[in-house]
Amino acid sequence: MTTPSAPDEEARQAEERQRRAEILHGISEHELGRLHAGDLPWEQWLASAHRHGHLGFANTLLIGAQRPSATDVRSYEEWKAQGRQVARGETGMRILSRGGMPRPVFDIAQTSRSSQGPAASLTPAQVMKQLHRLAAGLELYVDRDQSWTYTGRPERRIVIPAELDDEQATTLLAHQLAHILRRGDRPDPAGEEPTACHGVRRVRADSIAYLVLAHLGMDTSHLSFPPVQGWAGTDPRANPQAALKTVCEDVLSVAGRTRRHLDTLPSASEPSRAGGEPNVVQLSPGSSDSTSPSVDALLAVHLDAHAFYEEHLPGSWAPSYLAERGFTVDIQALWQLGYAPQDRHSLIDHLRGLGHSDETVIAAGLARRGRDGEPYDVFRDRILFPLRNPDGAVVGFIGRRPDEGPGPKYLNSPETSVFRKSELLFGLYEGRGRLARGSRPIIVEGPLDAIAVDLAAPGNPVAVALCGTAITTAHLDSLARHTDLNTAGVVLALDGDHAGETATLRAWTTLAQVTGPVEVLCLSSDVDLADILHDQGCAGVCEALHLMVPLADLVVDASIERSGGTLEFAEHRLAAVRAATSLIARMRAPQIARQVARVATRTGLDTTTVTAALASAISPDMASDPTTAAEDFPLPPLAGPTLDPAGTRTPHRANQPQQQRRR
After folding, report:
1. What is the mean pLDDT of the chain?
2. Which of 105, 129, 338, 580 shows a CA-CA span of 20 to 30 A to 173?
3. Cβ atoms within 10 Å, residue 245
4. Beta strands in 489-561 (DSSP E)
5. Distances from the Cα of 342 to the Cαs of 234, 329, 382, 406, in angstroms?
């Protein structure tokens, strides 16, 4: 009997892990269907989300399906580190790791010393105090008895009717904070709560409130929810289960962020940052004796900086400039754009006044020190586009200068512990829901291009912008969390200038890992989608979105032009074939026959010669017989209408028909 080699055994184990992962994914999808159908009550899922939400949405379903009574779930090693031992004979539950692979976990009831005291509980009045302090940390004002005159910004005021008892008042405050902490949402207007909040919006806010109140130990049995199908829908064309999944992930994300804020609140004995002003405390901005500001401190300073930039937008040149280019005031508000004043110290002075240390502001990338040691603002006289992490928190900015202003056209926040430009995409957080419902992602170069696509084609696709960097695998991973790239694929729409074309060709190596269709918008030289919106309006953008060619075609054509020149001489044509086939050899099997036919047509050589060159590129150490190589890569007939899209000339930028190049 032959003993399997180590590589074979590793491959077998990897295949088995993948099989088990697929089974777990299937179970979670089945449970999602039960949740949508009402067989799994929404309140039951919320209870699981309260206990296990930190493990991710899929695992809240998996744990509930395997052990509904589980309360505290950890791995064997984690229990061991806690001084507990998994009892003999206990079978672990299987959940999915962050990498999507199965891993075993055990409930606390499966360990020695499994007795667990009752969770600490708070009265509604005690929970109200906690939420008051959270609101104060967000610079919000909770007005319950209206015993004092409020003179601040109206949108910063949360009115709680005096006639509500503590339980009702606390629940309403948690509901309103859920709206506020969810990016792009707004609290219900005072006095209009029953009509202003309904359907999925109300379910989402009440569900977040449920998780926050449960986290603080308050009884949540008074909260009730309508049937899932009543607000998630039942029309299969709208993919209601995907929409339901998006809501669940949104609930977990906002509730998790809220819990982190609550857990970092200073003790009640600490002084407020604004003297006698009511209800004002600071949300963990970091202390001066810390060498590295915390993540919460960086998020808090970005939150305040964003509010500052938003306040300065109306009085600047930016609104009229944006409106003239097709981005109305309403669009500017929808995307929460801001403006950085020209003064070198306006932001740093403002943030100091709110209690943020210079070290925190500098660590956040919002200021840097000059030669004299004094900090100054990084962004000055620029339109500011907020960059959000997967939770929706602002973690950086893209700043655009005036057309004739000094410096680079776009200036990005430097990388920090909360912002990595190789991972984040502008517009991904805002478009995540539509991606989950099947919209196709388009990768564009600048934030205005992304907003132009969203304005011109609001239903489909979803445009996301790079943050001044090349496309990375991490970018694709971020997209893949919201859409199936193997089905939807990706469209690339970088600027039509030389730099944009070069970036498009370089992106091929990264995008080659996407098995779905990868296409490119053929934009004219020195034109981007924002320019098309300005010159031709939404109709022009929609027209441009249809001028796509496969990225593989573009890459192969470019290699032919670079290596073969005018293809006038036989040696030039052979050089072009060798260059093209070296790329084709790295493509997926379904693309190979089509590209061989295209190269033969472009160079004027027969398919046998091209196929032989391809065989040599695949196995350069083996001399291939041309006849055998041609049989190994069967090709479609060289005549007939079926070859037309594959074998004819591709609309490459350098030789597009004039009517297709018009913008």
Report:
1. 81
2. 338
3. 21
4. 490-493, 518-521, 548-550
5. 52, 21, 8, 12
So what's the pLDDT on residue 152?
A: 58
Q: How far apart are CA 228 and CA 235, in angstroms?
A: 13
Burial 641-659 (b: 16+ CB within 10 A, else e): eebeebbeebbbbeebeee
Q: Helix, strand or coil for residue 394?
A: strand
Nearest alpha carbon to residue 172 among 154, 155, 156, 192: 192
d(CA 336, CA 192): 24
pLDDT band at 202 (very low <50, low <70, confident <90, very high): very high
Give the residue among 77, 146, 69, 60 at the shortest CA–CA distance from 107. 69
Q: Residue type for 147, please?
A: S
pLDDT value of residue 630: 36
Q: Which sign, positive or negative, has the C-alpha torsion 582, 583, 586, 592? A: negative
Predicted confidence at residue 191, as pLDDT, reads 54
Q: Could you tell me the CA-to-CA distances from 632 to 127, 583, 624, 661 in Å, in that order?
A: 72, 18, 11, 38
Which residues fall within 8 angstroms of residue 274, CB to CB, at 6 or more apart? 280
CA–CA gap between residue 365 and residue 352 (Å, rounded): 15
Q: Quickly count: other Cβ atoms within 10 Å of residue 323's Cβ.
A: 14
What's the rounded Cα separation, in Å, for the pair 559 and 652?
Answer: 12
Q: DSSP code of 89?
A: T
pTM over 0.85: no
Q: Closest Cα to residue 153, out of 361, 305, 357, 310?
A: 310
> Does 613 score more than 90 pLDDT?
no
Which string of DSSP letters, residue by residue, matches 590-603? HHHHHHHHHHHHHH
Is there a contact between 538 and 569 (Cβ–Cβ < 8 Å)? no
- Encode 25-40: b = buried (16+ Cβ within 10 Å), e = exposed: eebbeebbebbbeeeb
More confident residue, 195 or 473: 473
Alpha-helical segments (H) within 53-93: 57-66, 76-81
pLDDT single digits (tens) 121-160:
778 888 998 898 888 877 788 887 655 555 556 667 888 8
Give the pLDDT score at 353.
94
Neighbours of 49 (CB within 10 A): 24
Q: How far apart are CA 606 and CA 609, in angstroms?
A: 6
Identify the CATH homologous superfamily for domain 295-412.
Answer: DNA primase, catalytic core, N-terminal domain (3.90.980.10)
Between the CA of residue 184 and those of 187, 335, 431, what are the distances in Å? Answer: 10, 8, 12
pLDDT in tens, 516-528: 899 998 877 678 8
CA atoms 364, 369, 375, 380: torsion sign: negative
CATH topology of domain 428-546: Dna Topoisomerase Vi A Subunit; Chain: A, domain 2 (3.40.1360)
Q: How many CB atoms lie within 10 A of CB 112?
A: 12
